[in-house]
């Protein structure tokens, strides 16, 4: 069942004489074997054919069972019925099963040919007795019959002893056996022991292979077997390579190469160089160094005429070029390897290279050729009867089907692969197959089955001691726990996976794990950290040229920008991701991108576009059978119907989504749907049901650690409590929602991004202010108006205070020099790129040149902002700056003198507010809602900005007088009595920040009717406020400090 090693012997001698054999009730027919008379028979699955041959004591038997389409095991029994040999060579259903024996007693020996698989298809084998003679000199050519010499008997005993020693399980038992048989430690003994070690290695029984090689190495040194020393050094290094221990692998492999080179063993030296190259390529992530060793290895193989070695090395060179991003060269070398293998007529090698070509195209996201090459390799492996490789090919095909969205076909391939692999007991292969099965279950939305598969994969991987597979399984288990909302366990497994992957230098696994950790940080609202992980993932994906991962990372970066309210940048990344996914035909990715783009359009108010993308996403998810994709699309369609006022359709889609989430065990997505259902019921004035949904959402969000969903749920709870006339509980909900929003905001990377994010979470502030002012109206002396002023300061002051604080403070103190050097280098590169852009734009240029330099500047800017975020996070002084406190009423009043009046405005969805503050008093006033004020402000600003019309049209001046008069009445009339002689400090909000208050007419100077001006009758819009007052505009009262 196993593939032979490239230079391995086809002969395995196992002497087992510890237990007896008893015939079954219906013994098989026994035929006589004769030298020179081969027998050909058909053997069905589960059958046993028996043969008898007479031997005299001291005779040598060499029998061969040539397999022709059925995998057999050959067992030999002595005249007393004791089993003395069993042979199952690692060549599958083709090739010889050789049996060697020196008869210890005269009599009839029974040889049985057994089919390993009860359900194996019928096949053929041919048996012949190659020699029935006295022992010769163990040569291929047969000598004349004679008695064996003492030396020949000793060599045969040494080989028997090697088999016994190889089967021994502990070092203590091996040492005891060696102490008794010191005379057998000869060169033939070392060669036989090496072959047994190779067999164990081919079976992936690394502990036993390593134990034998470590035992043999000092023995070979003792007897002066230098060639054997080189072989065992190589074997040990090879095992460490497969176990992922690159440091020890390189140490032993370098020693083996040096010795083999000294001995002139060029072919073996090529083997050592080849594996050293693989260590650098696959584990050290140094493909340039790997190419150096591969080229030296290739030269030795070509010099010695080792075609098989040449083919393998060409294939490895192709892989190194792929890692360097030289995809044309990668394909070229693999095609050369394929041509040589086909010319050599080695179907096994051809199948292996076809498999490698399939993985090459799969990793590039080219699924059609990946599937084609997989099918070709599958066909060859089936023809060769190599069940392990048939299982592996089916497993690779499952991966392709999964990314194409054909989950049914993916599951069928995975289960077929598992069925073939289970009897083989190849733990590494089983770990890989069960891992794929978990991925398929996860794509179908079966979270519990997915987690179970990943845990089984980890067990198999640990049993095989395969560190790369262990790292992969740890990451996938973390992902399953993340889907279930168990963030603590998810992070624990992710960190274990990342640590192991970084030790191994496995870029692909690092990409998977850091992307997963980015998702955790995003769900917890730590956007700066999430963005760092996603950008690192994108960079690594581009380095290795993996289109699937590039598209995934682009989408992830877009999601962070979306979360932070930067919808333009989010849409840019989503569209790039969609384009790439459509190019490679990645159906699940396309479905996700369609959904993300729909989200952007929905939040921009373009419901028609949003619904179009959501419906496409839903159709594709249903076609794939993706429960997670269906659930997400249903939630978003329901939310869009809610915003359009179609509450029946909204609830129908949202309930379906909730049911799917509960069926899948995807608790992390439940709060989002419950929040939308709460919003529907609130819009229908069913406040108790709205509260019920919101509180359920909050409970699950707390359990899963998703703070963004928790903030939304608390905001809705506050609204429902207020509508139910429970102001104290409403206050509690709003305060907690605001605290979470401010905490989340402190994790957003970049001042601009933090301001953008904060703009998306203003609702709880507005609702809380409105509640407090309502309470003030009911209880004017309880200070609710002052508290409302403080809340509005919290809503507006945070971004500005952070910017001012960071500008004044040297937050770089205590930051490691390497990070500061990276910041300086990026700043210099940005300056150079900006200068190049300026020179380009002021001279002759093409659109392609402009686009290229813009792309470079965008990439450098993103990296520069990322570094600045890291500096802030790591600075010992930054902790005191992340949450600067806005001022309260008393602190604001202490900063005002008796000649100053503070006017602070807050616009709201249902009503707006004005606070007039002096050193000794505070008065508050209710104003019209935001939309009414915005309308007047936009018109006023538009009229003021059109200077040319003012000189040519009296109508413009007249219209402005009317608009300005209305605004003055809204904004200034409530405080007209307090204005006289005051310096005005105005803190505007929303659209009011664009309004020049000094150009509004003073409340007491507004005059109705015409006025003569330069012989013309024009409207008198009154004395501008700036004439009578010094006016200072501030973004926040807290900046007075």
Describe the structure.
With 1041 residues, the chain is of the alpha+beta class. Among the domains are: 30-148, Jelly Rolls (Sandwich), CATH 2.60.120.380; 386-502, Tetratricopeptide repeat domain (Serine Threonine Protein Phosphatase 5, Tetratricopeptide repeat, Alpha Horseshoe), CATH 1.25.40.10; 586-665, Tetratricopeptide repeat domain (Serine Threonine Protein Phosphatase 5, Tetratricopeptide repeat), CATH 1.25.40.10; 817-880; 889-1040, Nucleotidyltransferase, domain 5 (2-Layer Sandwich). It has a five-stranded mixed sheet with strand order 1-3-8-5-6, with no helix packed on it. Helix 6 (246-263) packs antiparallel against helix 7 (266-282). The longest helix is centred in the C-terminal third of the chain and has 28 residues, at 847-874. The termini are far apart.
Shape: elongated
Strand residue content: 5-15%
Structural class, by secondary structure, is: alpha+beta
CATH class of the domain at 889-1040: Alpha Beta
- Strand line-up across the major sheet: 1-3-8-5-6
- Overall average residue pLDDT: 81
Note the gap between the termini: 80 Å
């Amino acid at each position: 069942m196993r593939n032979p090693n490239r230079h391995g012997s086809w002969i395995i001698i196992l002497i087992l004489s510890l237990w007896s054999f008893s015939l079954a009730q219906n013994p098989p027919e026994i035929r006589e074997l004769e030298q020179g008379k081969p027998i050909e028979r058909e053997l069905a699955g589960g059958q046993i054919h028996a043969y008898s041959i007479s031997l005299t004591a001291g005779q040598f038997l060499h029998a061969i069972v040539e397999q022709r389409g059925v995998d057999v095991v050959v067992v030999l029994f002595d005249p007393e019925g004791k089993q003395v040999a069993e042979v199952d060579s690692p060549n599958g259903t083709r090739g010889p099963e050789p049996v060697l024996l020196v008869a210890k007693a005269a009599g009839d020996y029974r040889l049985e040919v057994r089919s390993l698989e009860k359900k194996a298809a019928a096949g053929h084998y041919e048996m012949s007795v190659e020699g029935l003679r006295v022992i010769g000199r163990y040569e291929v050519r047969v000598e004349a019959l004679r008695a064996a010499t003492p030396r020949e008997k000793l060599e045969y005993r040494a080989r028997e002893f090697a088999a016994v020693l190889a089967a021994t399980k502990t070092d203590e038992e091996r040492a005891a056996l060696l102490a008794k048989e010191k005379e057998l430690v000869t060169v033939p003994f070392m060669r036989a022991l090496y072959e047994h070690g190779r067999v164990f290695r081919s079976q992936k029984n690394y502990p036993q292979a390593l134990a034998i090689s470590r035992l043999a190495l000092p023995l070979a040194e003792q007897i002066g077997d230098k060639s054997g020393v080189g072989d065992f050094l190589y074997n040990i290094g090879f095992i460490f390579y497969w176990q992922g221990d690159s440091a020890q692998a390189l140490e032993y492999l370098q020693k083996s190469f040096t010795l083999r080179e000294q001995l002139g063993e060029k072919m073996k030296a090529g083997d050592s160089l080849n594996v050293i190259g693989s260590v650098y390529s696959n584990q050290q992530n140094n493909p340039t160094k790997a190419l150096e060793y591969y080229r030296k290895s290739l030269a030795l193989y070509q010099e010695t005429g080792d075609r098989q070695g040449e083919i393998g090395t060409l294939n490895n060179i192709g892989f190194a070029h792929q890692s360097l991003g030289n995809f044309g060269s990668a394909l070229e070398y693999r095609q050369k390897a394929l041509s040589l293998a086909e010319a050599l007529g080695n179907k096994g090698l051809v199948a292996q290279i076809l498999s490698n070509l399939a993985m090459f195209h799969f990793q590039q996201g080219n699924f059609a050729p990946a599937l084609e090459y997989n099918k070709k390799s599958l066909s060859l492996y089936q023809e060769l009867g190599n069940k392990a490789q048939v299982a592996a090919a089916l497993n690779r095909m499952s991966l392709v089907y999964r990314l194409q969205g054909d989950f049914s076909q993916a599951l069928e391939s995975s289960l077929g692969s598992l069925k073939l692999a289970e009897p083989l007991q190849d733990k590494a292969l089983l770990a890989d197959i069960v891992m794929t099965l978990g991925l398929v279950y996860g794509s179908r939305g079966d979270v519990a089955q997915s987690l179970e598969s990943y845990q089984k994969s980890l067990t198999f991987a640990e049993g095989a001691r395969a560190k790369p597979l262990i790292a992969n399984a740890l990451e996938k288990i973390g992902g399953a726990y993340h889907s279930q909302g168990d963030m603590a366990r998810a992070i624990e497994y992710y960190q274990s996976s990342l640590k192991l992957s970084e030790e191994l230098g496995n870029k692909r696994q690092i990409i998977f794990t850091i992307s997963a950790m980015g998702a955790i940080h995003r769900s917890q609202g730590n956007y700066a950290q999430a963005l760092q992980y996603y950008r690192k993932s994108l960079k690594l994906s581009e380095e290795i040229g993996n289109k699937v991962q590039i598209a995934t990372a682009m989408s992830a970066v877009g999601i962070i920008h979306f979360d932070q309210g930067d919808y333009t940048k989010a849409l840019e990344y989503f569209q790039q991701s969609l384009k790439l996914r459509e190019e490679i035909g990645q159906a699940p990715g396309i479905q996700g991108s369609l959904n993300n783009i729909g989200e952007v359009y929905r939040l921009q108010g373009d419901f028609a576009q949003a619904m179009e993308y959501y419906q496409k996403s839903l159709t594709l998810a249903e076609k794939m059978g993706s429960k997670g994709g269906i659930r997400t699309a249903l939630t978003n369609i329901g939310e869009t119907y809610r915003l359009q006022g179609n509450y029946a359709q909204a609830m129908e889609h949202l309930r379906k989504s909730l049911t799917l989430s509960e069926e899948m065990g995807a608790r992390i997505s439940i709060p989002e749907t419950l929040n939308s259902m709460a919003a529907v019921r609130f819009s229908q004035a069913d406040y108790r049901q709205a509260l019920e949904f919101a509180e359920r959402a909050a409970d699950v969000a707390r359990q899963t650690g998703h703070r963004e969903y928790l903030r939304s749920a608390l905001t809705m709870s506050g609204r429902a409590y207020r509508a139910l006339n429970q102001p104290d509980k409403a206050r509690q909900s709003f305060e907690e929602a605001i605290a979470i929003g401010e905490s989340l905001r402190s994790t957003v990377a970049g001042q601009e991004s933090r301001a953008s994010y904060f703009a998306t979470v203003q609702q709880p502030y507005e609702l809380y202010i409105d509640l407090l002012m309502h309470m003030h109206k009911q209880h004017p002396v309880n200070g609710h108006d002052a508290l409302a002023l403080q809340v509005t300061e919290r809503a507006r002051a945070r971004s500005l205070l952070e910017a001012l604080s960071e500008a004044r403070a040297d937050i770089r103190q205590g930051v490691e020099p390497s990070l500061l050097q990276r910041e300086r280098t990026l700043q210099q590169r940005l300056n150079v790129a900006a200068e190049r852009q300026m020179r380009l734009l002021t001279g002759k240029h093409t659109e392609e040149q402009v686009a290229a330099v813009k792309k470079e500047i965008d990439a450098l800017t993103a990296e520069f902002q990322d570094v600045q975020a890291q500096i802030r996070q790591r600075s010992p002084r930054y902790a005191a700056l992340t949450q600067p406190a806005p001022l309260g009423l008393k602190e604001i009043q202490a900063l005002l003198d008796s000649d100053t009046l503070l006017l602070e405005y807050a616009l709201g969805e249902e009503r707006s507010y004005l606070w007039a503050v002096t050193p000794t008093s505070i008065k508050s006033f209710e104003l019209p809602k935001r939309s009414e004020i915005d309308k007047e402000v936009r018109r006023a600003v538009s009229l003021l900005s059109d200077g040319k019309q003012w000189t040519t049209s009296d109508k413009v001046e007249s219209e402005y007088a009317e608009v300005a008069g209305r605004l003055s009445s809204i904004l200034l009339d409530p405080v007209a009595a307090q204005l006289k002689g005051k310096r005005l400090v105005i803190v505007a909000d929303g659209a009011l920040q664009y309004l020049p208050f000094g150009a509004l007419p003073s409340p007491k100077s507004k005059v109705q009717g015409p006025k003569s001006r330069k012989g013309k009758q024009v409207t008198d819009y009154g004395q501008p406020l700036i004439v009578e007052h010094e006016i200072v505009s501030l973004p926040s009262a807290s900046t007075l400090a």
